[in-house]
Amino acid sequence: MNLHDVRVRPSEDQLPREQQLAWKIAEVAVDPVEVTPEVTEMVINRVIDNAAVAVASITRGPGVAARAQALDHPYEAGAAVFGVTGGYSPEWAAWANGVAVRELDYHDTFLAAEYSHPGDNIPPILAVAQHRGCDGVALVRGIATGYEIQVDLVKAISLHKHKIDHVAHLGPSAAAGIGTLLGLGTETVFQAIGQALHTTTATRQSRKGEISTWKAHAPAFAGKMAVEAVDRAMRGQTSPTPIYEGEDGVIAWLLDGKDAHYTVPLPAAGEAKRAILDTYTKEHSAEYQAQAWIDLARRLHHAHPELTDPANVGSITIHTSHHTHYVIGSGANDPQKYDPTASRETLDHSIPYIFTVALQDGAWHHVDSYAPERAARPDTVELWHRVRTLEDPEWTRRYHSLDPAEKAFGGRVEIILRDGSTITDEIAVADAHPLGARPFARADYVKKLRTLAAGVIEDAEIDRFLGLAERLPSLSPAEVRALNLVAQPGLLEAIPLPKGLF
């Protein structure tokens, strides 16, 4: 990897384009290096994973609304929209599919200096591939680039520190991935990256307090903006420059300021794009930091069934990383995280709630575990309000470790019972993590799809999709256009589509 020093430069310096981060990213995007077999296999896994979580969302409010917007923008031989047939304008297909993929917070993740769901790159890249008639080789290359750029930015540049939403890294990564897909030149990709970043910086209020349905739309918006940015750049339109380093740029005014200094790792020329291998997917539908805690709670449920009754429990203290404590724990100081009437989007960002339900049920379900009647159960509310989180410096250090063998997203739980006894246990990574008890493999991705598609997609349609996805690199342009899942007859037709402007 090459390490690129990034800092704010005054306009009078006239920083050459070749030294700007956006140009360096563009150079990675246009590098014709081959995709390795293991990266190709993981791309296939994540295409299946995205489809699984998307079809589980197509009957939910945000997915229905976003699909309704896309259906108002038909385009002959355009991109596919999950659940339906026909072609649609690629930016709107990217929008609808992006919302469906993110709605359940159930796809892959990478965590470092910033947070991310790199699978959010797939909807815009796939939509453009279908629209432009790209083959499977080009699609795999584009997705590998999207993952690479997002992971590299996430390793180096913290957005949440300044309350900027993490999708600000997604706009540039998706634009870069589309550039690779289409074989665009460095200049064009450079301009697209600048526009994509400029239009996708927003505050983190979308993930604070009472979390709204916009949480699912935010990454889809970044993907849609990336598609539009590439379109404008291909038409010769330029972007703010230097977008990162400028004295009125993103870093100077939205991030660490004029004295900022970042070191961004990017593959050297000819070096394979392998960042997707550093990412990890979810077995459970919840914020990634909750994955390991669900697994630990399930374990405690079976080992200590007395813990399910609040009459036996005095307090539960979760010792964990800074991020878990302050974003999804009690350190966020969000009363909504303890509110049984809170939205699903809020509850899936509440580790006190998630740990309590998983502890009581010994299981986790993407719908049932968030049902209003489940959240309002009196014994759950009583136990839930006895759960607190604390930051532990050691777990914070492990969270930020660059050594995959010690990088951790869990912590230690201490449960004090009413009789004065104490139960403690800990977990470093989720069971499905590559270093976990049961690492996800191809069979798990396929099972996840079949489970989430039950009652939504017919078995024959699932088989057809898997037949395409599992030979992704060999797909023809026509087969790439068919890389979609259509809902069983009558399902979506029975759901009224909300009307807006279109």
Automatic annotation (TrEMBL):
- Give all residue intervals belonging to the MmgE/PrpD C-terminal domain: 284-462
What InterPro entries would the database entry show? MmgE/PrpD_sf, MmgE/PrpD_sf_1, MmgE/PrpD_sf_2, MmgE_PrpD, MmgE_PrpD_C, MmgE_PrpD_N
Q: Which Pfam families match?
A: MmgE_PrpD_C, MmgE_PrpD_N
Coiled-coil segments on the chain, per record = none
Its domain of life reads: Bacteria
Describe the location of the MmgE/PrpD N-terminal domain by residue ranges: 19-262
Q: Which family does it belong to?
A: Belongs to the PrpD family.
Q: What is this protein called?
A: MmgE/PrpD family protein
